[in-house]
Write a structure and sequence with these properties.
Blueprint (H helix, E strand, L loop, with lengths): L5 E5 L3 H13 L3 E5 L2 H10 L4 E4 L8 H11 L4 E5 L4 H10 L3 E4 L4 H23 L2 E4 L2 E4 L4 E4 L2 E2 L4 H12 L7 H8 L8 H18 L6 E4 L3 E4 L2
Parallel strand pairs: 1-2, 1-3, 3-4, 4-5
Antiparallel strand pairs: 6-7, 7-8, 8-9, 10-11
Helix pairs in contact: 6-8
Length: about 230
Amino acid sequence: MDIEINILVVEDDNDISQLLCSIIKRSGYAPQPAFSGTEAMIYLERQEWDLVLLDLMLPGMSGEEILAEISKKSSVPVLIISAKLEQKTKIETLRTGADDYITKPFDIEEVAARIDSHLRRYKRSGDLRKNPELKHKDISIDTEAKAVKVNGGEVPLTAREYAILVLLFSSPKKVFTKANVFEAVWDEVFYGDDNTINVHMSNLRNKLAKANPNEEYIETIWGMGYRLKS
């Protein structure tokens, strides 16, 4: 039997709430509308959610306040859907813990695609937690101890290098763009600072190569990004 995917829709406009709920139902998920910040907090405390769609301008408690509370207590993905267009607002919510920001009026197909994308990513991170040991070639990662071994010997990595390696392991065939890597590892919006990623990726590769000079673990797909080398 399939496990039901539950999505909390925090939106005070009834028409928009109904539209979002219909998008969610059409994708095969179960929506739960909440029409105020206070009501949303009741639902958040009552059960676990797979995803939260969150408006910012709400009665009772603002979306920013709800986002801050969610970020303290949960890793559930949060998609902001708001009429606020200011770049500063977008950056602040993303830094607070939002996973995405969609402006109103929105495209129905885009919302559906982004919901699917974040649910896939959340499932992958959950799978990593359930599988404490990750392996590729002669690399093994103990995700509980945050220890990496190559060719039987432990390789000391910085926190950033470790996070990059685990990200690549999370989807071995996926090509991760520099924006993917930066936003996942640094948890900030990517503004094209290639140098930061290049330095960390180079250091990671050098440490892996030193541990086993006869093997290549990470490949660069020119013009696209990085992935594990099969």
